[in-house]
Amino acid sequence: MKKVLAFDMGATSIRGILAYIEDGKFCTKEVMRMAHKIQKREGRLYWDWESLAGKIEETILENQDVSCIGIDTWGVDFGLIDKEGNLLQAPHCYRDEKFSEGREEAKALMEEFELFQNSGNQIMTINTVYQLLALKNLEAEVYEKADKLLMIPDLLFYLLTGEKIGEESIWSTTGLYDLSKKAVSDHLFSKLQLRKELVPKIVRAGEWKGNTKNARLERLRSLSIDVIPVCGHDTASALLMTERDAENPSLFLSCGTWSLIGTSVEKALVSKEAYERNLTNELSYQSETLFFKNITGLYLLEKYKEELEGRLGRKIAFSEITAFVQKDAEPESLLDMDAEVFGREGIKVKQEIDAYLLAKGGQPPKDDFSYFTLIYASMVEKYREVKEDIESILGKTFSKLQMIGGGARSEYLAEKIAKNLRLKVKAGPYESSALGNILLLLQKEGEIGSLEEGRRLIYEASEIREYSF
């Protein structure tokens, strides 16, 4: 029996999960969970990199009996390594508002639709391409010293193995990867006047291997644990846990800090219609193409919960929120969850929601807890809009949806989605990114014969609920 260790890193917390197959059953044990916060220095936003990397190192040292390790994280963010192999600075956080300067720089060099056609990625200010352009202009010395650009999971892979590689799924979030050709876009690097030599060797998930004996972290070099580049993007990893039915395909909804709703397609869709509806293409395992939309998700609800707790001077349980919203009246006006203001770090949620509604001729909620009702309703309405956009572009109608991620735990949200979108909804597994990570590790270690077998074992060990309209 081989044990594997998956690190699943989200924008507010990271976790380490030990997994193995015993007596034909799938078993897991959470061995680490740590909340983390964005750091603000001199007007810029950074990840608390030393704490993140240190916690991962510590967790590995405490679990030396594992045979391999995998890492998945959020997308778009990166670190820069110099020629001596040193990290030049802590990675910036995608919520840094200075990246808007990179977007303006890109607009001066090419039309946004041309960028979309050559990358397939939804045009968002957080995208790696805009981050890199902003860094080139605002931190020229760092940009010029850089030898390689490593996305967050690849940066951790480097710390654990000493190898500089780029995993395909995480690179497909950059806005610099041509999803139609499944290769880095020479055209974009040239047109945007960016250094192509920053790109590391690109590999597909599961098709490379490093080892801790060559780690940059000295304390890990005494160990000999394989490190596998799984699907580095947490969304791609999570979607390995969704059921596959070629004859009756399903929509997926990865519901966490961000909401990502879409489906699998044969090739990247880069039409004018897809661009105008702000849809995106990314890659998953074995270069599978995903067609979906990124939407501000539970981030806004969590931020408002934190804000209200501060005002009330007490903690608010999600059960209390659910009990209220189930009885509350539907809001008369809704928010556009695409509005960039609702995804900003440090947002004063009530103030921004009130301003938005008043500007649209609506009225703010009268009860503090009705803001939760409003956020839930606005999320579901955006899901409905995106479902219709995708159906229009693909010329097909979907009858079912699978929710994964933390939001799938909410019966209220799942029931509301089923009713408003008129879909059969399957909710679960919940820790889907970590589970998809584990699934590839177990396959690589020969503990399962196929992904289908592993998925079945994980489903048997997971709570999964179904809802109908």
TrEMBL record:
InterPro entries: ATPase_NBD (IPR043129), FGGY_Carb_Kinase (IPR050406), FGGY_N (IPR018484), Rhamnulokinase (IPR013449). CDD domains: ASKHA_NBD_FGGY_RhaB-like. GO terms for molecular function: ATP binding; rhamnulokinase activity. Residues 4-240 form the Carbohydrate kinase FGGY N-terminal domain. One of its GO terms (biological process) is rhamnose catabolic process. Keywords: ATP-binding, Kinase, Nucleotide-binding, Rhamnose metabolism, Transferase. SUPFAM superfamilies: Actin-like ATPase domain. Gene3D superfamilies: 3.30.420.40. Belongs to the FGGY kinase family. This is Carbohydrate kinase, FGGY family protein. It comes from Oribacterium sinus F0268.
